[in-house]
Amino acid sequence: MAGQLMYLVDTNIWLEVLLEQEQAQEAYRFLGSVESNCVFITDFSFHSIALILTRLKQSHALLDFIRDTFVEGRVVLLHLKPEDISLVTSVMHEFNLDFDDAYQYVAAEQHKLTMISFDTDFDKTPMGRKPPGKVEF
Predict the structure, then answer these.
(1) Which CATH number does the domain housing residue 120 bear?
(2) Which end of the chain has fewer CB atoms surrounding its CB within 10 Å, N or C?
(3) pLDDT reported for residue 19
(4) 51 within some domain
(5) What rounded mean pLDDT belongs to the chain?
(6) What is the pLDDT at residue 4?
(7) Is 120 among the domain residues?
(8) Residue 16 reports pLDDT greater than 80
(9) Closest Cα to residue 5, out of 42, 37, 44, 29?
(10) Is residue 136 part of a domain?
(11) Bridge-partner residues for 75, per DSSP?
């Protein structure tokens, strides 16, 4: 993996595919083009996806996601320590981000990952983000 770009994939990318939304093809192309061991997801995103899918009564889709992503795939699950939340709140105030975006930002920054997201809120940060269709392989 040395020299290979590593990506933190935001919640909205996964949901585009799982819920077959408007930008699903762009998200799916990205996810299908990158080695899964170069893809990271936060525990916050994982639990958000689980919450959304189960509220939509799509437990089967959640189980398929877990199998495809973590069991058969090699996507890496990241978490922040409780003491990292002070960084999250600092980022919230500094860049005017919601908690979920600040959580993603801190995780990406700590692990030196490229943020993949449709969320333009990341554009006001030094790290920025790339929409999946703008990633070059």
Answers:
(1) 3.40.50.1010
(2) C
(3) 96
(4) yes
(5) 96
(6) 73
(7) yes
(8) yes
(9) 37
(10) no
(11) none
What would the two tokens of residue 2 be? 């040395």
SS3 label, residue 3: coil
Q: Which of 3-7, 20-24, 103-107, 118-122 has the lowest mean pLDDT?
A: 3-7
Q: Are 36 and 4 in contact (CB under 8 A)?
A: no
Token output for 107: 């995780």
Number of residues that this document lists for the chain: 137
Q: Which domain holds residue 119?
A: 7-131
Query: How does residue 136 score in pLDDT terms, banded at 50, 70 and 90?
Result: confident
In a domain, 23, yes or no: yes
Region of poorest pLDDT, from 1-10, 24-33, 106-115: 1-10
Token pair 């990205």 in the structure block, residue: 30
For 10-64, the three-class secondary structure string (H helix, E strand, C coil) is: CHHHHHHHHCCCCCHHHHHHHHHHCCHHHEEEEHHHHHHHHHHHHHCCCHHHHHH
CB-CB neighbours of 18 under 10 Å:
19
Which tokens hold the place of 49?
A: 């996806």
Domain count, the chain: 1
